[in-house]
Structure formats: C-alpha cells, structure tokens
Amino acid sequence: MAAAYVYMRRRHQNIRRNRLLRDYDNPLDYLDDFDIIRRYRLSRPMIIDLCRRFDNDLHRPTMRSRALPVSLQIMAALRFFATGSFQLVNADVHNISRSSVSRCVRDVTQCLVNVCNQHIIMPTDAASLEIIKRGFYEIADFPNVVGAVDGTHVRIKSPSVDEHIFVNRKNFHSINVQGVCDSNLKFLNIVSQWPGATHDAFIWSNSTVCELFENRTISDGWLLGDSGYPVRPWLLTPVLNPTTRKQQSYNGAHMRTRNVVERSFGVLKARFRCIDTSAGTLLYSALMCCRIVVAVAVLHNLCIDNRMPLPPDRNDFPDHGHIAGPLLIY
Question: What pTM did the predictor assign?
C-alpha cells in the first residue's frame, strides 16, 4: 500500500505543468491584495472596475508601437495620487517614460472629473436627507443636520499669472477647497476652483450648495460650519463667547458633530498624499491642481463606499520608488 502511494506521488510530481507567464510591467499581475491597497489605495476589483469604465477614454490605438494598457495608465496615476512622488520616480517604478506618467495623470484625472457628479452628490430628497440626519444625530445628539462644511488649503507651486491671489493667510500658494460631508466622512459636495486668498464665506456664497438652500430646494435641515461662515437659517455656527450653560452645551455638540468634515479632509489627505503637505507641493498648473483635488475626492468616496482601510503607515509614508516586484539579476 505504501509502495503504491509513493509511486502515485512521484508520478504526480513528474506531470509537466504549463508555465504561468506574468506581465511584470503591470503591478496587478505580481502584487498581492494587501500591497495593492497599500501602494495604490484601491483594491484589485476597484481598479479593474475603473479599467472597464474608462477603457474607451484611455485606450490608445496605434500602429507605431505598443500602447500602454489601460490598467497601467490607471495604476501610474493612482501611484501619483497615493504618494505625490515625482514623475521620474513614478516612471522608474512602472518602467515607462516620464512623459507617459504625465499623460497618465492628466488623462485619468480628467476621466475621474467627468464622473464626479455620479459619486459626489448632495441629496435633495427627503428619504436620503433623513438617513444623513440620523447619522449626525448619533454623534452628539445634534438634530436635523444634513451636512458639515469646511475648507482646506492644498499647496501648489507659484502660478505665473495672478500669483498674488493664490497666497493664503499662512503665506504660501494654495487652492482653497470647500467640502460638505456626511457623518460617514463621504463628500456630498466639493468646490475646487478658488485661489488661496479667497475667503471661506465668499466661496460658500458662490457655491451650488448655498443656492440649494437659498432657493429652498433643500427646505428641511441645517449645515454646520465654523465661525468663518455667516449665520443663516440653514447654516449654524458656534456661539462666540458663550456665557450660559446652554450655549456651552450647544457649542460642545456643534464642535463634535462638525468635526467630521475636518476628519474627512484628514482622511482624504492621508489616503492621497499628493494633496498633503507631507508630499511637498503640487507641481502642476492651478487648473490642473483643481482637477486633481476633485479626482481624489471621487476616489475617496469610492473608498468609503467599498470600506477601504487607511494605509497602515499613513503617518510616515515616504516614497522611494520601490515596489516589491520581481528580483532581476543581470
């Protein structure tokens, strides 16, 4: 019996197996699921889904040479969004040229901006608003809240035109980005088009969300903002210099509830370091920087919907251009 078992085992080991050929120019083929999320922030199924959605926009038929596959274009752009590394570093990681990385970032950014209205939506129907209200109420028992609004600055290089209007109050060049989010840290609205010197109240008064409340499209619910925003029937800010216990209680509940929008921006910048100061400065034109902010906000909402974890090393994420790919010995 034992001899028969040894014979069958040796025979099984001698069966010729077909070689599994992997494309080592495509990280999807050799990185495991954990490394893909850690280095590109999206899971393998999410990246494949993006490839299907943007195939017509990113596919480049050519008779001259081998075009970059859509998956590689998307992953090169995701690598930039995740780390904010230089194009040359990104090019070395993916074995493509620096100009190809530039085109990948530009084209994928535009694709994400085009689908922004499908993923960043301010609901107006009563059922959706009621769900948002319940989520906010569970934080600090603050009723009837349909969103929290705040702004953040994204550092950019000094523009060549109208440079002075991009210098913010902290004395560096930036884009002033306004966001409205729900209790799940998901963005309901994003405004990325104003230079850093623009005041938060001015951005708010010229936003579509403000118009929704003013024309009573959203007639039931409040937004929470900090003291930089004007007080409106639908926009509540903290009480300055509270003197009574009720005012102090209101400010405490207001602060804890509104804190979700600050956390939303924090998670956004931790996940996509290209817009965080830890990665330096966005070395693109002001218009391209605005589009990049919208693109990563779309990806952020996709990550929230798919329950993507934050990178485990979000507090210290240097990018040295190394991916744990195959070891090549020459």
Answer: 0.85
